[in-house]
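Box 3.1 A note on notation
Throughout this textbook, protein chains are presented in two layers. The first layer is the amino acid sequence; the second is a C-alpha cell string describing backbone geometry. Keep the layers aligned when reading.
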Amino acid sequence: MAAAAAAAAAAAAAAATAFSRGRRSPPRTRPAAVTPRAEVPGRHRGRVVPAVPRRNVLSTMLSTSTVLLLGPKQITLAETTGGAFREYIDTFDGYTFLYPKSWIQVRGAGADIFFRDPFVLDENMSVEISSPSSSKYISVEDLGPPEKAAEKVLKQYLTEFMSTRLGVRRESNILSASSKVADDGRLYYEVEVNIKSYASNNELAVMPQDRVQSLEWDRRYLSVLGVENKRLYELRLQTPEQVFMQEEDDLRRVMDSFRVIKTE
C-alpha cells in the first residue's frame, strides 16, 4: 500500500507540474498614457497664481490687428489699408488715431500715449487728457473760439519749453486756428504753431560780438482738440519744419484721424 500511495503522490505532482507549464500568464498591459491637463489661467497645480499686474500686457495677434489688455484698459492696434499707418484705439480713456507704422511707442514720457520716429528724434506725437476730477468740459467751445484756444496752446508749449540756460531766446507764431465737424458729428479745433529757439554757445563772453545767437531748432507743432466724457483731449504732433515740408500729407492724415470716443 505504501508503494501505491507513493505512486499516487508522484502522479499528482507530475500533473501539477504539467498544468503549471502549460498555463499562460496574463499578458502585461502597458499603463495608459496620461495626457497632461491644460493649465487653467490663474491656477497652477492646485494653487491660485496672483493676478497679472496692471503693467503686464497680454498681446493677442489677430489677422489684421493686435489687441492689448492692460488691466481694465483695452487698446487695439490695427493695420490700415496700404500698410503705411496703424490705428491706435484706446477704449478705456476714449480716443483713437492713426500713426505712421514705422514709429515706436515710448513709455514714461508723461503723456497718456507717446510715439516717435525712431530716426528723426524731434518728430513725435502724443495725447494729453485733462483730469476727470478737475475738468467738466461740455464742448471744445468751452475754450473760446479757435483763435483763443490757439493762444492757450501756444502759451502751454512755451511754458513747457522754458529754459534756464543763459542767452536762450524763443520766437513763436500761430500759423492757423480752425474748427471742423468730423464724421462722428463732434466739433474739433485744429491749431498750428511754429516755434524757433536761438542760443549762444558763448553767452559768458565779455564782448557782445562774441555772444552771437544762432538757430538751434525750428519746429512745427500741430494740435487737435476735442471734448468727450467731460474731458479735454489734445493730440499733439511735433516735427522739424524741414521734415514737415517733406511729410506734410502724412502728418495731416494723422491729424484728420483723431477722434474722441464715449466711454462707459
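Residues 240 and 246 are 10 Å apart (CA to CA). Residues 85-203+210-260 form a domain with the Protein Transport Mog1p; Chain A fold (CATH 3.40.1000.10).
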